[in-house]
Structure formats: C-alpha cells, structure tokens
C-alpha cells in the first residue's frame, strides 16, 4: 500500500510521466523513542522535478510565457492585417491588399504596430493558460479518480482548459484592448506608452476590461478546442500514424508529432472562435460600443470576415506554441505525459484481461 492517495494517483493516472518512478526510501531508525523503522514510497524523477510540484507548475508557466509571448509577437504583421480586415472591410479587401495598403500608408515599420502590448499581454495569458491548465488537469483528475480520469479524459481536458482560460483572459484583456486600438485606429496612438494614458483619460479603467466578456466568448471555446483536440490528436497519431510506440521515439520525433497535432488543433480553434474575435476587434476600436451592438452591426456574414487569415495565423501559431511548450519541458527534463492507457483495474472490470 502507498501512504497517500496522491502518490497512488501520480503513479497510475494517465498524465503521469514516463520518467516518473517509485523509489523506496528508508527513514532513519527512531531508537530514542522506541519507534520501528518505516519504509515509505517516495516520488522521484531523474532531475528532482516532481510531477505536480510547485517547481513543475512554475516551469510549465514559464513555458507558456515563451510559447504564447514569442509566437503572438512574431505574428503581429498578419494579426494587424486580420484586425483591419475585420473592422474596415470596405478599405481592406483581402490579405494581400491589406499588407500593401499598410506598407503604403505606414511603411514597413507600420506592420509592427502593437508589438509591445501583444508581447506583454500574451506572455501573461500564456503563463495562466498553460500553468493553470496543468494545475486544473491534476486537480480534476484527483477528483475523478484513476478510472474515471481515463473514461472522461476529453471532458477533463475541456474543463481544465476552460478553467485556465477564464483567468488567462483577465490577464490578457488590458493589453489586448491597447493592441487593437493601436492597430485599427490610425492616428490614435503609435506606442504602448502613448496609448494607455489616452485610453484611461477617455474611458477610465473600463476601457481596458470592456472586452473581457467577448474575449471569454472567443478564447474559452478556442482554448477548449486547442487543448482537447491536441491531446486527443496526439493520442490518435501515436495509435494509428506513428509506426512505433512513443517510448521508442526520439525526442525530436516526439516534437514533430507535437507540431502536427498542434497545427490540426489550430485549424479547428480558428473556426470556432472567429465570430467572437471579430466582435472583440470592432469593440476595442470603437468607444462606447457594446458587444450586442457590434454583433448586430456586423451581421451573420460580417463576423466571418478575415477567417482565412485567422486560420493561417492560428494554425501556425498553435503548432508553434505546442512545439515551444513541449521543447521547454524537454529542456528542463520535466515529466511529460504519455498518451493515456486504460488502467489495469478498469481492464479487469471490463473483462479485457484474464
């Protein structure tokens, strides 16, 4: 018997790491008080970063900062054109037309407008998104138990990612509002330092959080799709596409699977979250508007403007984010989840073993 439920969970649940192992640790004899020697089961990894520890979550959060902050900043030119297609479709007719007009009016440097709030905002979002996802995944798994964790794993991915994104969007909202205002309102402000005080003077703190509800509408479905689709795609790729077990794959081969699964997930993410993304872009451009007013103004067709640009952007973005995040785990030698397998106890219940 293991002394705690946590150790048993870490040993047997489908999120445990292949590097995770159980070692026996002999406690020193307490002869002074006449106590007997006890043998405990202790969790250990090769580098002492234990799955579910504070250090593990902190490094996962750091991986989230890099994966979201760097990728979103690299995509600023495409994001800028996408936002302009959404808020001014009469002027910006297509992706190519949007790039040409932007360079003609603002020069090549104009394509980098909004890079600072993008980097800060999405770094904070990445910290909460990936860090809290790992926290909630273990928390909900603990509540469900080993067998139900396997049976309800898709629901677990959905619940953990939605919970994490709720907090991530609160962290993102202020900088997202600043970014969109800089990118879509010519002449309003060119830098973060110029835009923030101007927005605060006009609308107060509300200027930075008025988009949080449509942001939840956009990002929570997006993140639920991003994590659940990724997790299940990885599982299916190793089961049906990769010719050998994950344990026999090199780290490079595993990262290729991560990238492919991330891109597939990104395409679906872009589609489910695009209407809300259009509302957020227009809402942050116009002072005094509400989400309902913007939705009525755009109409059923208007909310899908810029979808192709967003699929390209989000597909690439999601693939790179998962690749960077998994690479950070490899670099720091963190426990990395293997595709889940049915617990032995459940196999016995279902009569799948002798």
TrEMBL record:
Inorganic ion transporter that transports phosphate or copper ions across the mitochondrial inner membrane into the matrix compartment. Mediates proton-coupled symport of phosphate ions necessary for mitochondrial oxidative phosphorylation of ADP to ATP. Transports copper ions probably in the form of anionic copper(I) complexes to maintain mitochondrial matrix copper pool and to supply copper for cytochrome C oxidase complex assembly. May also play a role in regulation of the mitochondrial permeability transition pore (mPTP). GO terms for biological process: mitochondrial phosphate ion transmembrane transport. InterPro entries: MCP_dom_sf, MCP_transmembrane, SLC25A3/Pic2/Mir1-like. It catalyses: phosphate(in) + H(+)(in) = phosphate(out) + H(+)(out). The lineage of its organism: Eukaryota, Metazoa, Chordata, Craniata, Vertebrata. It comes from Dissostichus eleginoides. Keywords: Membrane, Mitochondrion, Mitochondrion inner membrane, Repeat, Transit peptide, Transmembrane, Transmembrane helix, Transport. This is Solute carrier family 25 member 3. The chain crosses the membrane at residues 255-276, 307-325. One of its GO terms (molecular function) is phosphate transmembrane transporter activity.
């Amino acid at each position: 018997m293991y002394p705690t439920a946590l150790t048993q969970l870490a040993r047997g649940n489908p999120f445990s790491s292949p590097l995770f192992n159980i070692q026996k640790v002999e406690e020193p004899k307490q002869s002074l008080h006449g106590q007997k020697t006890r043998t405990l089961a202790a969790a250990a990894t090769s580098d002492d970063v234990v799955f579910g520890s504070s250090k593990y979550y902190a490094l996962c959060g750091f991986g989230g900062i890099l994966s979201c902050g760097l990728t979103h900043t690299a995509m600023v030119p495409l994001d800028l054109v996408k936002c302009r297609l959404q808020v001014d479709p009469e002027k910006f007719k297509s992706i190519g037309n949007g790039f040409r007009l932007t360079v003609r009016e603002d020069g090549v440097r104009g394509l980098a407008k909004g890079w600072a709030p993008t980097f800060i905002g999405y770094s904070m979002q990445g910290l909460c998104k990936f860090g809290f996802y790992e926290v909630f995944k273990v928390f909900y798994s603990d509540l469900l138990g080993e067998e139900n964790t396997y049976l309800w794993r898709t629901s677990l991915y959905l619940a953990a990612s939605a919970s994490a994104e709720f907090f991530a969007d609160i962290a993102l909202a202020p900088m997202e509002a600043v970014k969109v205002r800089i990118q879509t309102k010519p002449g309003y402000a060119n830098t973060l330092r110029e835009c923030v005080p101007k927005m605060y003077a006009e609308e107060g703190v509300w200027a930075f959080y008025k988009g949080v509800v449509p942001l939840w509408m956009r990002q929570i479905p997006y993140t639920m799709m991003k994590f659940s689709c990724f997790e299940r795609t990885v599982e299916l790729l190793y089961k049906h596409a990769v010719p050998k077990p994950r344990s026999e794959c090199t780290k490079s081969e595993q990262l290729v699977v991560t990238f492919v699964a991330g891109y597939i997930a990104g395409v679906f993410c872009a589609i489910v979250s695009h209407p809300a993304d259009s509302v957020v872009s227009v809402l942050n451009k116009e002072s005094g508007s509400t989400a309902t007013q913007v939705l009525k103004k755009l109409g059923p067709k208007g909310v899908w403007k810029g979808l192709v640009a967003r699929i390209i952007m989000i597909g690439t973005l999601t693939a790179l984010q998962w690749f960077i995040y998994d690479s950070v785990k490899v670099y720091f030698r963190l426990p990395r989840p293997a595709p889940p397998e049915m617990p032995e106890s459940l196999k016995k219940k279902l009569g799948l073993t002798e």
